[in-house]
Structure formats: structure tokens, C-alpha cells
Amino acid sequence: MALPARRAAAGCGLPIRVVSRRLVRASDPSIRPHVLAVSHLDLYANTEQCALTCVYPKPPTGAGDFDAVVAAFEAHMPAYLNYFFPMAGRIVVDPSSGIPELHCYNQGAELIVAHAGVELSALDWSLSGESLKRIHVPYAQDMVLSVQLLSFACGGFAVVWAANNLVGDGNVGVMLVRMWTELVRTGTISGGGPNHDRSVLRQFSRPRDPPTYGASVAAMYTRWEHEQEVNALTAEESFIERLYYVDERDIARLRGEASAEGRQRATRVQAVSAYLWKVLAGIVATSKLLGEDEKRCRLLWWVDGRRRFSSPELRSSLRNYAGNVTSYVVAAAAAATVLSKPLAGVAAMVREAVTLTPADYDELYQQMVDWMEVHKPTNFVETPAIGLGSPTLAQTMWSSFPNDTDFGFGEAALAMPVHQNLGRLCMGLICITPKPADPGTWIVSAFIWPRLAAVLESDEQRIFKPLTAEFLGLTRGHGLRPRL
Q1: Which InterPro entries match (predicted)?
Q2: CATH code that applies to domain 10-197
């Protein structure tokens, strides 16, 4: 996504000791060095560092210790980079165009080994700033991939897959973990591995001559300038961060309520989105600063286009495409309208917003590409992220990406993207991921208004529960010496 992020300090106060830091290169000498031009949809993502953090409890007896984890990466990472060759390159901005590109000369991906001098259970897992965001080591801005292995005093460990948004979206982040697991366990990656060929996407979405887009697409984006954002003190007081979990049975209950007789059965995403929309509408309806005609609220969803285009051939070629294929849709309504409908009615509103026809998605992406052609290399954000007008709660659903985190040391306790603070932007953000060992249950990262957090945490239904070390299974185990 295009939201600018702010880099946090090393470990955010966590006592992380870096044991080693080195570059790992792909092992296949037949792969020719090349420059990979990014697509227009990659430009939508901008060059922002991001990370998918996998946290593991102490491995089961016989699986091996942290030394064995490090040895697995040292042994398999060169072959892994044969499949993900661009990840061993560097991001370079073309001085004439101002557009970034990938210089794939096998300069090497980064492998960091570090020790965090605390137990995983000592972290406050209800607050991302006190847990997930403390588990990382800063790395160079031009680095495409930094794999960070951190051991903890309890015997657990974390693998941070730190990459750059320019080279891929959330689907690619999960692909990195899933295909690593497959390679370690089987010695190969099925289906030929990831597809880095941007020309596959250009066949569908090269800019038209002249570029053509409508007012609705033009309104989706706003040029990002710091002076257009709210002041820092207002932003800091406006939002808090939380980590929650949502039980499978609670999702099923919401889905039942959102699937009233005579209506199409709601999906899990539609049911939870409908619940969140009603909660947000209830807060907006009580605002003392708004007139009745101003009490409106919006929901935003980021959309992975891989399975939504009309061409079966394109959908097939994009199945393992390692790039960005992300757009977004937004729905707005009066708070009174949302509150007046049963959950099934609000779920129908959600379904209408996200269920465009394949032809509609074809045109949306084509117009997005045309807009990028006219405005590149300008930095921009999704217009609702600025925070003007109706409050907007954005959702990104990583729960739809198939994943496997067990590369020989058991399933991760959680595997979540780490979204840095949205700086001086004023849109609420919720990211939903499945619990690796229990994919029916969701783990949720939230950057939201304090009033929304208060309602979610005091709601009688208790759908969103604060995440704990006990729930994640991180309270067992004893010390483990770091690898020296």
C-alpha cells in the first residue's frame, strides 16, 4: 500500500544484540545480472520498508535449537535466492526519471543473527509498539531483503522477513515465508516458484495513449506533502495501537447474524466488516462536533487483483506473481443508515462495495495505471488516509493468503506484517491475519482511534480480545544460549 511509514529505532528499547550481519548471494551462476524495471502498480506502493514477522515458541523436543534455525538459513538461503533473485539486488533511483528500479546484480540479501535479552512472555502482546515493533533491526534503505533471526531467553525465536513495498504486496510477503518453508522441507519450490516478470502485468495494463482515467480514480489519490498533514501533536493524541485476537466461534456467530434468511450468505470478512462498520457508526453518531447531516463514516478495503481480472490466462500467470497488484475500494454511508440496518443489511452493503465485476476491476486497474503514468514519480497516498471528511477505517485482509510457517521447528505463534505508525495521517487501520496453527482464528493489528478501541474492548460480545502471551503459547520454556 502507499501509506508512508516511519522507521522505528533499533528494537524500540528492546535489548537486541546483533551477533552477525552478512550478505547471502544466490548460488546459481547461470542467472544473468539485469535491471528490473518496476511496474506502474509497484509505484503505487512506493519505496517503503515493511516486514512480515514470524514469532515462534521454543521448538518442540528434537526439532533443534536456535543454532539449528540459523544453520537452516545458512544452508538453504543461497538456493532460495535463486528463486527470488531480485531480492538479492538493490533499489536504485534513475537520476533522469526519478523512478526507482531494481538492480539485480546478486549483491546479496542480508542475513542478521541477533539475541534479544528477554523472554517472549515478557513483552506486552496487546500493544504492537511493545511487542512486534520491537522485534527488528534497522537496515539500509536500498536493501531489498533483510532476513533477521532473533533468539529470546525463553528458547523461542523470531524470523523477520524485512523487505521493501516496491517489490511486492502482502501476497508476496506471505509467498516469501510459504516458499521458504517448502524449499527447506522438500528441497524445491513447486510450480517453478515466483514469477518476477513485470511484462506479464504490462500485457494487461500498459498505459493507454493518451492516458485516460475518470474523476473517481483521480479522487482515489492525493499528492503526499508533509505540510498537508495534521500537526504531529494532534496525530499522536488521535490514535493508539492494539493487538487483538478474534475466536473462530465468534467469527462464525457474526457470520450467522450477517447471513439472514433470504440474503446471500456472508463471508467471514463481510461479517466482521459489518460489525466494525456498525461500531464505528455508533461512535460517529454520538459526536458533538457534527451536525446530523455530517454524521457519516467510511470503510476501505485493499484488494488483491490477482484473482479478479476477467482474463483466465492473466489470472493464471499472476498466481505466483512477485510484484504489486493492489488497489482499494471504499464505501461511505450515513451513520444513521448503518445503525438502522441489521447486521445482515450492513453485510450486504459491504458485499456491494467489494464485489465488482471482473470487467470493473479490469477498468479500475487500467485507469490506475494511466493515472500513475501522468503523475509518476510523485509521492501520493490514498485520499481517505489524509483524514479529511468522514472518518475512515481501512482493512487489509492477509487472512486470504495461504501460508505455511513450519520449516522444521513447529508452526509460528503468529505471522503478522508490521505496519509502522501512519505518521501524520488520520485514517484508522486494521490488519487481519490468521493464527498459523489455528487459521480459523484471527489475529488483528489495529491503529485506531481511542474511542473505537474503548468500544471494541468493552463490547458485551467481546469479539476483539486483547492479545496475550498465554493465548500465543509463549509462556513455556526456559533459557537458550544465543549463537556466537
Answers
A1: CAT-like_dom_sf (IPR023213), Plant_Fungal_Acyltransferase (IPR050317)
A2: 3.30.559.10
